[in-house]
Design brief:
It contains 17 helices and no strands. It is mainly α and 372 residues long.
Length: 372
C-alpha cells in the first residue's frame, strides 16, 4: 500500500506540472500529460520485468546527467532571467543585492513584487551560485545527487529502472532548471542529513553535536521540514534506542543552532527584524494555523506507526504532500479551480516537490512494487 501511494503521489505531481506548463504551448496538453503518466507508471510497475544490462543502465544514467548539465547551459545561454514569470531567482538576487548595499535584506522585493519569504539559510546556500551568476547550477545538484544514488549507492536494478525513467520524463525537472528553482536540491540536502541521523550515535552528544548543528541550520532553509524532523527525531526514542534525556539534549542543540541564525540577524539589524521576517511572510499562507498544528500532531503520531527506518521516508513524503494538497484545496475553494491552478496560478504547485525526494528514496530503498 505504501509503495502504491508513493507512486500515485509522484505521478500526480508530474501530471499537474505537465498539464499546467505544456498547456501554454499545446492545445491538447492533457494528452501529453496522460502519455507521460502511462510511461512513468509502466516504469514503476513493469520495467523491472525487462532485463537491462548494468552497463546499459549506467549509460542511461550518464546520458541523463549530461542532459541535466546541457539544460543548465541552455538556461544560462538562452533563457534570460527577466523573461521568466517565476521569481525564484529574483527573490535571491534582491535579497543579496540589498544585503551588500547595506540594507536589511528582508525588506527587498523581487521583480514581481514578492518579499523574500524563505529563511536565511536558503539564501546562504544559494550565495555561491549567485556569485557565479547562474543559479541553475544549484538547481541541478539535487537531480545529479539522485542519479548518483542510482549508480553508486544502490544495486537493485529492478527498483532503479523505474526511478530513472521517472526522472528522465519529469517535466518539473525541466521547469526547476529553467526558472532556477532549488526545491529538490534543498530537500535532498535535508534528506542526506536525516539519513546521517539514522546512522549516527546521537546518544553521545560529544560525537553527534556537528550533526545536531547541521540539522538546525538546514531547518533554517524552510520551516515546513519541521514536520519531517519530528518523525526522524522521535523514531529512535519510540524504538527505545535512546532515552528521553538524550533526545532532549540533541534536539535542544539543534534548536539552538536554528535559533542562532535569527538571533544573529536581530543582533545586526535590530527591531526591523520584527517588522519583516520569514515567519511573518509565511503567516500569510492560505492554510489555517489550526491545520498546521494538526500536521505537527500527525507527524508525532506517525512516528509511532513507523515500523522501520525506511517508513520514515514514506511518511515524510506523505505528510509534506498532504500539507501542500490542503493548501491547494483551500485556494481552489477561494478562487475556483481554473483561476487557482492555471489562469492566475494562486497555487504554487512547486511546493509539491518537497515530497518528491522522500518518496523516491523510499521506493529506492524498498523492493520492486511489481514483485509484491
Amino acid at each position: 500500500m505504501k509503495k502504491a501511494l508513493s507512486i500515485l503521489m509522484l505521478l500526480f505531481i508530474n501530471a499537474i506540472f505537465s498539464y499546467k506548463y505544456l498547456s501554454r504551448e499545446f492545445d491538447n496538453a492533457w494528452i501529453v500529460a496522460a502519455i507521460l503518466v502511462v510511461i512513468q507508471l509502466f516504469g514503476f510497475l513493469y520495467l523491472s520485468k525487462i532485463n537491462i544490462p548494468k552497463k546499459l543502465f549506467n549509460s542511461a544514467v550518464i546520458i541523463t546527467g549530461l542532459g541535466i548539465i546541457a539544460l543548465v547551459v541552455i538556461a544560462y545561454l538562452k533563457i534570460p532571467l527577466d523573461t521568466l514569470n517565476v521569481d525564484r531567482w529574483s527573490v535571491i538576487d534582491s535579497f543579496w543585492s540589498f544585503y551588500f548595499d547595506g540594507k536589511y535584506p528582508y525588506l527587498a522585493s523581487s521583480h514581481m513584487g514578492n518579499p523574500p519569504g524563505s529563511m536565511p539559510m536558503y539564501f546562504i546556500l544559494s550565495l555561491p551560485f549567485w556569485w557565479l551568476g547562474e543559479l541553475s547550477i544549484f538547481s541541478s545538484l539535487g537531480y545529479l545527487s539522485i542519479l548518483y544514488l542510482l549508480v553508486y549507492r544502490y544495486n537493485d536494478l529492478k527498483t532503479r529502472k523505474g526511478i530513472l525513467l521517472y526522472v528522465m520524463t519529469s517535466v518539473f525537472m525541466v521547469w526547476e532548471l529553467t526558472v532556477r528553482s532549488n526545491i529538490i536540491t534543498n530537500t535532498v540536502l535535508i534528506m542526506i542529513a536525516l539519513y546521517w541521523l539514522q546512522h549516527a550515535d546521537i546518544k553521545n552528544l560529544k560525537k553527534s553535536w556537528p550533526l545536531a548543528v547541521i540539522l538546525g541550520l538546514l531547518l533554517a532553509t524552510r520551516g515546513n521540514f519541521a514536520v519531517v524532523y519530528i518523525l526522524f527525531f522521535m523514531f529512535p526514542f519510540v524504538k527505545k534506542q535512546i532515552t528521553f534525556l538524550q533526545l532532549f539534549k540533541f534536539t535542544a542543540l539543534s534548536a539552538t543552532a536554528f535559533a542562532s541564525v535569527f538571533l544573529i540577524i536581530i543582533a545586526i539589524y535590530g527591531t526591523v527584524f520584527f517588522e519583516a521576517n520569514p515567519f511573518i511572510f509565511h503567516s500569510t499562507l492560505f492554510v489555517p494555523t489550526s491545520y498546521i498544528i494538526a500536521f505537527f500532531v500527525i507527524a508525532f503520531v506517525l512516528s509511532f506507526f513507523s515500523k522501520t527506518q525506511d517508513d520514515l521516508y514514506f511518511y515524510s513524503g506523505l505528510t509534506l504532500f498532504s500539507i501542500i494538497l490542503l493548501y491547494a484545496i483551500n485556494l481552489v475553494n477561494i478562487y475556483g479551480f481554473t483561476e487557482a491552478y492555471t489562469e492566475r496560478s494562486w497555487i504554487d504547485i512547486s511546493y509539491f516537490l518537497f515530497s518528491v525526494p522522500f518518496l523516491l528514496f523510499y521506493l529506492l530503498k524498498s523492493q520492486t512494487v511489481a514483485s509484491k
